[in-house]
Design brief:
By secondary structure, the protein is α+β, with helices and mostly antiparallel strands. It has 2 domains: about 10-195, 2-Layer Sandwich (Alpha-Beta Plaits), CATH 3.30.70.1290; about 230-289. It has 15 helices and 5 strands. The protein has helices spanning about 30-45, 70-90, 110-120, 125, 140-145, 155-160, 165-180, 200-205, 205-210, 220-225, 230-235, 235-240, 245-255, 260-270, 270-289, and strands at about 10-20, 50-55, 60-65, 105, 195. The protein has a 5-stranded mixed β-sheet with strand order 2-3-1-4-5, with helices on both faces. β2 and β3 (about 60-65) form a beta hairpin. α1 packs antiparallel against α2 (about 70-90), α13 (about 245-255) crosses α15 and α14 (about 260-270) packs across α15. The longest helix has 19 residues, at about 70-90.
């Protein structure tokens, strides 16, 4: 099984998801959801986590977690492990309840955190389970909007501070902000390699960290090559107009940036076998020299 790349440092913020094994439920009832939030509360206290938003669905969950101590892996091992033990004991079962490892996307706080918090609480609407976010009892929307007391695992201060210093107007603006996002396109099209969500400078910061990960086959390919240039930028018009330069770029795209021959063929509107032949010819030419 591929081993997701983890970037951990003090102050990092993540969008975390974990899904049920074989898409099976991880919450059978409201009591299970309450148990999960209580486990999260104890993990927050032990590992100094800050939870800005959450949404518990039937067979998966979403969390926005800030880690002042840069210790995500330790805390998540505790969260999923303790909940699994409690769930199994309560329902007289054994074995895993989560499907493999949790997924964590690193979020740039200044530019994208608020948008991701909105995405999380709108999950039940996207799933067509409710029409209004306030109808979903096991998400953080109601507490942040001032409709109920926050669960002790949740911190609403940062989110509401983005809407002004006074609590009532801030909550009103927050409600308006969330509902305005119902028709918005998915934020994840902006994510880089399914591991980073931020502006270009934010992504650049982590290129040195990611350098050298390209050869580690256990890490998913889209994460190993998170900083790679797009095919559009590799095959600019002047490159395509020169057959020799184009062929060299084809080899570069496969060997240096991890693009598959099929991806390149589709982009260049060429047959896969042609790309394969060019790659072999370039390799033979290199060996001769």
């Amino acid at each position: 099984m591929a081993r997701p790349l983890r970037i951990e440092y003090s102050g990092a913020i993540y969008h975390i998801t974990s899904r049920g094994n074989e898409k099976k439920p991880i919450f059978y009832d409201e009591k299970d959801q309450e148990i999960f939030l209580n486990v999260l509360k104890s993990v927050n206290k032990k590992y100094n986590f800050i939870c800005h938003a959450y949404c518990l669905m039937n067979n998966h969950y979403h969390l926005i977690i800030e880690t002042p101590d840069g210790n995500l892996s330790k805390g998540m091992r505790q969260l999923n492990g303790v909940y699994t033990q409690t769930f199994n004991k309560k329902h007289h079962r054994v074995g895993h309840i989560f499907q493999g490892r949790y997924k964590a996307i690193l979020i740039q706080k200044e530019s994208h955190l608020l948008e991701v918090c909105r995405y999380v609480v709108l999950n039940p609407i996207r799933a067509k389970l409710v029409k209004d976010p306030e109808e979903w009892r096991y998400g953080s929307y109601r507490a942040t909007a001032g409709l109920e007391k926050p669960h002790p695992c949740l911190t609403t201060n940062w989110v509401l501070a983005q809407f002004g210093p006074k609590i009532k107007p801030a909550r009103k603006r927050y409600r308006e902000f969330v509902k305005a996002g119902i028709e918005e396109e998915s934020i994840w099209i902006k994510a880089k390699g399914q591991i980073l969500l931020g502006d270009n400078d934010f992504v650049e910061e982590f290129k040195s960290y990611l350098k050298g990960q390209e050869k580690i086959k256990d890490i998913p390919k889209h994460q190993r090559y998170v900083g790679r240039p797009s095919l559009e930028s590799l095959f600019k018009k002047r490159i395509l107009e020169n057959k020799q330069m184009r062929n060299k770029k084809i080899v570069e795209a496969t060997e240096q940036y991890g693009y598959s021959q099929k991806e390149i063929a589709n982009h260049l509107k060429m047959h896969y076998s042609t790309i394969s032949r060019i790659t072999k010819e370039e390799e033979m030419s290199k060996n001769k020299t």
